[in-house]
Amino acid sequence: MTENVDFDAIVIGGGIMGTCSAYHLAKLGSKTLMLEQFEYGHKNGSSHGASRTTRIVHTSPMYLKLAQASYNEWNELSQSSKTKILEPSGLLWLDDEKNTRQRHEFLSKHSIEHELLHGPSIGERFQHLNYNNEWYAIYDPKAGILLADKCQEAAQKQFVKNGGTAHFSEKVLNITP
Question: In 3-state terms, what secondary structure has residue 71?
């Protein structure tokens, strides 16, 4: 006999997007079920692997807000799970003068920490690089590497810790509203 259980929310897919969605729903107090068609820790989707890059430098106000919010969320997840999930590395963004100056103006307007570099000053800052005066760059000191597998594991553990229910190897065959 199957027991009927009611949930406030059911998240289909236990990759990083589904897991983080389920985690936040549970953290907000929703009784949440997450269903994943593959076994725990599988390598079938795009959420596995060692790393993903992340950066603050964007030229769209929407992406800038999302990037800033994501850093806050990754830091919160890192603290709550006691897991290091972000390796700061910085990022050097090379482009032509026009695009680089536009990016610099946008970032300055939004008080985003960055460095504007031009030609030989790129090599002065990064001694292994050698660029002439045709080159321009923005350095994003907050950029880094997300440790993807650790992010996934930390989010799944925090989801369960916050009262979520995870079912692995459970494929959704039909949805009836």
Answer: helix
The answer to whether the beta carbons of residues 84 and 78 sit under 8 Å apart is yes
Each residue of 27-49: pLDDT tens digit? Answer: 999 999 999 988 776 666 666 67
In the three-class reduction of DSSP (H, G, I as helix; E, B as strand; rest coil), residue 30 is classed as coil
Contact 125, 137 (CB under 8 A): no
Query: What's the gap between Cα 64 and its chain centre?
Result: 13
Output phi, psi for 86, to 5 deg.
-130, 125
- Owner of token pair 């997007």: 17
CATH of 1-50+149-177, one of 2.40.110.10, 1.10.630.10, 3.50.50.60, 3.30.1390.20: 3.50.50.60
